[in-house]
Amino acid sequence: MYIRRMISHDLDFAHKLTVKEDWGNTKEEIAEILKFNPSGCFVCEVSGESIGMVMTTRYDRIAFLGNLIISESFRGEGRGEDLTKHALTYLENAGVETVMLDSVERAVPLYERLGFRRACRSLRLRGSIESEPSESLKTATRNDLSSISEIDRKHIGADRVRFLESGLMSSNSIGRVMELQDRIAGYIFATKKTDFVWLGPWILSDELSRDEEMLRDAAALHAIDSQRVGVLETNSRALSCFQKCGLEITGFSWRMVRGSSQPVFSMAEYAIGSPARG
């Protein structure tokens, strides 16, 4: 098996792999991860045929590992483990101290062999939220990026400004901010997928009693009545808000951590951006 860096020519192949897994990724999202960390995304080949991939996202000394997929006919032969080891070696050489990921149940033993430990469940919810635009929120612009990234970094513990800026500039994504007394108390992104809207990332730094107001406002941003979201089970308040607004848990993955430090999951993180990049 030969492992090489992913290039733009691989994006169709990578997207087809995620479609077969029904992960809901768009080709643009995969391209975004590749754009921001081209040296940390890999494809494996057998006899010149691309048969799997893995992608990493770096935020200084923290990283996420995601989109690990091996074509079905090549599974059960240790190729996924070899590919993951290759990606972890890259991250270690880059100075990353903590690696996180969201794992489906069947892949947990693989990651545990490689030093990951379960931290909590990363829940997936979907449904139809009764939308209601709010006058307390406004559409985010690049002028808000500094404030958004500041509260994001405070609660996530990493600098995600590149992805936040990309979300603001995307034609498929709309960001909303809650501005109170000339300060931003929270932000939320709503990204249009093929037939649903993904809500997240979502940080609500304070004014937690207004979480439902923010959620219903975000549900009104695209003309699609189906919403999905990912939330760590450690945030019981966020989970309660989603369920109150009509979303139901449809599944979960395991948020797993590898490294010397145990991250603290903030109650301000109401929704993850994506399983592949946190």
Short descriptors:
278 residues; alpha+beta; Aminopeptidase; 13-stranded mixed β-sheet; 8 helices; globular
Outline the secondary-structure elements.
Blueprint: E1 2-5, H1 11-20, H2 27-36, E2 41-46, E3 49-59, E4 62-70, H3 79-93, E5 98-103, H4 108-113, E6 117-127, E7 137-139, H5 145-156, H6 161-169, E8 173-180, E9 183-192, E10 197-204, H7 211-218, E11 227-232, H8 236-244, E12 247-259, E13 269-271
Parallel strand pairs: 4-5, 10-11
Antiparallel strand pairs: 1-2, 2-3, 3-4, 5-12, 6-11, 6-12, 7-8, 8-9, 9-10, 10-13
The major beta sheet can be summarized as: 13 strands, mixed
Q: What's the domain count?
A: 2
Q: Whole-number average pLDDT?
A: 94
Q: Element order, helices and strands?
A: EHHEEEHEHEEHHEEEHEHEE
Number of helices: 8
Structure description:
With 278 residues, the chain is of the alpha+beta class. The chain folds into 2 domains: 2-96, Aminopeptidase (3-Layer(aba) Sandwich); 125-271, Aminopeptidase. The protein is 28% helix and 35% strand. It is built from 8 helices and 13 strands. Strands 1, 2, 3, 4, 5, 6, 7, 8, 9, 10, 11, 12 and 13 form a 13-stranded mixed sheet that branches. Strand 2 (41-46) and strand 3 (49-59) form a beta hairpin. Helix 5 packs across helix 6.
What is the gist of this entry?
The chain is α+β, with helices and mostly antiparallel strands and 278 residues long. It has helices spanning 11-20, 27-36, 79-93, 108-113, 145-156, 161-169, 211-218, 236-244; strands spanning 2-5, 41-46, 49-59, 62-70, 98-103, 117-127, 137-139, 173-180, 183-192, 197-204, 227-232, 247-259, 269-271. It contains eight helices and 13 strands.
